[in-house]
Amino acid sequence: MNGFKNAGLSERLSTAASAKKALLEKFKAQPGVNDPVFVEREEARRAVREAREAREAGRQAERDARKAAEQEALQAKQAERAAREALDAQETVERAARQVAKEAEAKAARDARYAARKARSR
Fold first, then answer.
1. Cα torsion 69, 72, 78, 84: sign
2. In the Cβ-directed half-sphere of 55, how many Cα atoms lie within 13 Å?
3. pLDDT (tens digit, 9 = 90+) per residue, 104-116?
4. What pTM, to 2 d.p., does this model score?
5. CA-to-CA dists, residue 76 to 48, 73, 108, 112, angstroms
6. Over the stretch 36-93, which tens digit does the pLDDT of each residue have?
7. CB of 48 within 8 A of CB of 41?
8. Quick one: pLDDT at residue 5?
9. CA–CA distance, 122 with 110 (Å, rounded to integer)
10. How many angstroms separate the CA atoms of 101 and 99, rounded?
């Protein structure tokens, strides 16, 4: 096992300088913008990006269509519920009208009996 190296300042500075020089050489060795390999890679990336965007646009259109269908179904349910409530309200009004008519008829019959009883007693 290697022991701890007690490096001096000049040795540390020269190591740092050589590391920077190695990084610079590595950077310079990379192909430039005008390199055909670079252009080819960029075209491949562009194709992948366009395919990804097309898939995302398709998914978005699918989501929008699904959301529109859900919205239409919800509106249909709401319209059906409103129609049902209107029908229930109409039935309630008719039932109340029949009840009022029945009560009025019963009152008229009661009044007629009362009037007949009064007429007999006079």
1. negative
2. 6
3. 999 999 999 999 9
4. 0.47
5. 42, 5, 47, 53
6. 888 898 999 999 999 999 999 999 999 999 999 999 999 999 999 999 999 999 999 9
7. no
8. 67
9. 19
10. 5
Whose tokens are 């610079």? That residue is 24
Structure token pair of residue 85: 């409530």
Q: Quote the tokens at residue 42.
A: 């960029």
The C-alpha angle 19, 23, 27, rounded to 5 degrees, equals 170
Q: What is the DSSP string of the chain?
A: -PPPP---HHHHHHHHHHHHHHHHHHHHHS--TT-HHHHHHHHHHHHHHHHHHHHHHHHHHHHHHHHHHHHHHHHHHHHHHHHHHHHHHHHHHHHHHHHHHHHHHHHHHHHHHHHHHHHHH-
